[in-house]
Write a structure and sequence with these properties.
With 461 residues, the protein is mainly beta. It has helices at 63-92, 167-173, 274-280, and strands spanning 18-22, 25-28, 34-37, 44-47, 103-118, 121-133, 145-151, 158-166, 182-186, 191-196, 200-205, 210-213, 229-234, 252-256, 261-265, 270-273, 292-304, 312-325, 348-353, 358-359, 361-368, 372-378, 387-393, 398-403, 408-415, 419-426, 434-441, 447-452, 456-460.
Length: 461
């Protein structure tokens, strides 16, 4: 039979533009579809071809082309889901470069977060109750227990992360009240101590990035403590709101297992009976053998806004100059009962106000040193009132005032030459509190949340 010549249109897109590939075999220039012709019935047979990885545009109702596209997009969808899963999974991990096979899921409950100095720079120590879970369980999963570590706040790098004691071992010795621990830096001794009720003493050493239990060694040479420790606490400061240990000295109140009370001062390694302690803290400067230093600390005087108000809102800063007994007993709570009723030892040299009255509710001195005083207060009695931080110099002059966006607990404060560093805790009524390392610039009071302590994250195996 003869071939009937008719205009040939691409059965896929309708274009008449084509290239002849062979005897009665053509390819559409528009969409790339290949097709050929039968004689007589002019039947068009379609062979779909997709260039560029199968992403050419198409038009028509061919089941073959739709199926091919569906398969391609199905494969792409699976790959995309897998990649998104890995990205999200990695972001939740404390070490994004660690795969799920090489890491363990961790839940942390932080018991302490404080700034310390490591090689002259501020870093943050943490102590946490840690539990583990892992999809790929094996015998290498670390024990649940109390872990500690150190973090560089500038880079977020974990300098150390170590097991202090497992839950099982802690229960065996009765070291379970971590939620009631207290931590202090004793300036004269240049040491950090932690007390855990009722009878444990830990020593924190930022230079070696270590934490050790010194309960059995700290009194090794003290015969009076040979029966062991029944209870131990830091000696309570006479002023609970002025961020200094100047009030009563830097020491520990301990009770041995014979129910005898002693006062221990690490800087001088002296252990006082209760009678000797009460006597020593009242000694005049002339009887302290030169073991004194001319020192200054600052306190707040408070009063109600008016005679008709029961809310204390008026505050005044005072400078107290006194002779500090180097690391030993004293009683510098000179104005515990008001500025008109002096008490305490006879080592005070002078006292004078450095500000007039200023307004602030629940006012505290969060931090003080030879140059700066950081004050915390609220602008009203509302429970939702934001926390305000105010930096003054030691002449009482306001350098800046910064209002935080939410009610927040400020704890553990240290400064370097550029910033004030602290632990900031956002309290959540509907969930866990959020703990941050935060900083304020000394010059402008610019607030920055440098690091968030994750309660659920991943660590390498």
């Amino acid at each position: 039979m003869s071939t009937k010549i008719r205009p040939i249109k691409c059965p896929n897109c309708g274009s008449e533009k084509h290239v002849q590939l062979g005897d009665k075999l053509y390819r559409c220039k528009s969409c790339g579809t290949e097709y050929f012709l039968d004689d007589d019935d002019i039947t068009v047979h379609v062979k779909h071809h997709f260039d560029n990885g199968g992403f050419s545009s198409f038009n028509g109702n061919s089941n073959v082309s739709i199926t091919s596209i569906a398969k391609v997009f199905a494969i792409i969808g699976v790959i995309t889901f897998f990649l998104l899963f890995m990205i999200i999974y990695g972001l939740r991990s404390s070490s994004p470069s660690v795969s799920s096979h090489d890491s363990i899921s961790v839940e942390d409950t932080y018991r302490a977060i404080v700034p310390v100095r490591y090689n002259g720079r501020v870093c943050f120590f943490y102590l946490t109750n840690r539990s583990f879970s892992n999809w790929y369980s094996d015998d290498e999963t670390p024990p649940t227990g109390y872990y500690y570590g150190f973090i560089d706040p500038d880079s977020g790098k974990v300098l150390a992360d170590k097991l202090f004691i497992s839950d099982d071992d802690a229960r065996k010795i009765g070291m379970t009240a971590f939620h009631m621990l207290e931590i202090q830096y004793l300036n004269q001794a240049k040491k950090w101590y932690i007390t855990i009720p009722s009878q444990f003493i830990l020593e924190l050493n930022p230079q070696t990035l270590t934490l050790k239990n010194v309960t059995k060694t700290i009194f090794a040479k003290k015969k009076a403590m040979s029966s062991g420790i029944s209870s131990v606490n830091f000696i309570s400061d006479t002023y609970e709101d002025h961020a200094s240990t100047s009030g009563v000295g830097e020491g520990l109140k301990v009770v041995n297992n014979l129910a005898e009370t002693y006062y221990y001062f690490p800087a001088t390694d002296r252990l006082y009976t209760e009678e000797a302690y009460n006597y020593a803290k009242e000694l005049p400067v002339s009887e302290l053998n030169g073991e004194v230093r001319d020192s200054v600390f600052y306190i707040l005087e408070r009063k109600d806004a008016s005679e008709n108000s029961s809310q204390t809102s008026q505050n005044k800063l005072w400078r107290i100059r006194f002779m500090y007994h180097l690391g030993d007993p004293q009683d510098a709570g000179y104005f515990l009962y008001g500025m008109e009723n002096k008490r305490g030892d006879d080592r005070m040299i002078s006292h004078n106000p450095i500000t007039g009255w200023f307004t602030g509710f629940e006012t505290l001195i969060d931090y003080q040193d030879a140059k700066y005083i950081l004050i915390e207060y609220k602008t009203s009695i509302s429970k939702d009132a934001p926390t305000v931080l105010q930096l003054r110099n030691t002449n009482g002059v306001v350098l800046w005032t910064h209002s935080l966006e939410l009610p927040m607990k400020i704890r553990g404060i240290m400064r370097d030459n550029q910033k004030i560093w602290f632990r900031a805790t956002k309290e959540n009524n509907s969930g866990d509190d959020e703990d941050y390392i935060a900083s304020l610039t000394l010059k402008e009071g610019y607030l920055k949340y440098e690091y968030k302590f994750a309660t659920n994250h991943k660590v390498p195996k």
